[in-house]
Protein: 23S rRNA (Pseudouridine1915-N3)-methyltransferase
Amino acid sequence: MNYKVCATGNKIEKFYSDAIKEYQKRLSRFCNITFLNYKNFQKLHFKEIDKYYKIVISPAGKSLSSEELSEKIKEFELTGITDILIIIGNEEIHCNEVISISSMKMSLGLTSTIFFEQLYRAYKILNNEPYHK
Amino acid sequence: MNYKVCATGNKIEKFYSDAIKEYQKRLSRFCNITFLNYKNFQKLHFKEIDKYYKIVISPAGKSLSSEELSEKIKEFELTGITDILIIIGNEEIHCNEVISISSMKMSLGLTSTIFFEQLYRAYKILNNEPYHK
Structure:
């Protein structure tokens, strides 16, 4: 599974980018995941944007439990969806679904960190591995 | 307003304690806030625990928006509640209310970071200050 996480807005703080790097490392045995932090979403010109299944993260979206997120990943795997674009900080883009990680508004760095932590947790659940931290 | 935030469980990761320290610094102009990270809640022997208004953070609690959290703080100020104990990682303690910051399970460090960021955001809302980050 390939994930591209795009956080558009201000540059995120160091403690959040440190956290994201750590989760990226931990996730590397489950999936490929890249993280992009741009000022403007328009600057993100990458090839074949249409091939991605697009998920926007927004407080207005559907709220999921950690178990439901892991079920969703399993569904993607079963239906052959292999490229997922996660969009944080831009709610206007045309997407396949909108997911909420909290009803509270949060900074870009914090929202990105939560997404990475939850994706890691979801893979741990899928692989029946304990998650204590 | 005095806040004591007690996170009980494993030692939290460095990037989260860096984030918490930063928000503690930013919050210092609005309130007094201390952070404790203990293995066992029982080890927390501090004086006059009864004087605290106790809030447990749990995915099972009442979910609030950032604006509702700022309203809650205003209410505390109006009703003369000055000492608040925030309990993270221990859902069995007898408390005044249970608040959710997400329907997802999260690590102790991440939950603590979100609480600090949200408290900072709530004070910015109360003081009509912009919050871009």
User: Anything to note?
Assistant: The mean pLDDT of chain A is 90. The first strand of chain A starts at residue 2 and ends at 8. Chain A has one domain: 2-127. Chain A has three helices and five strands.
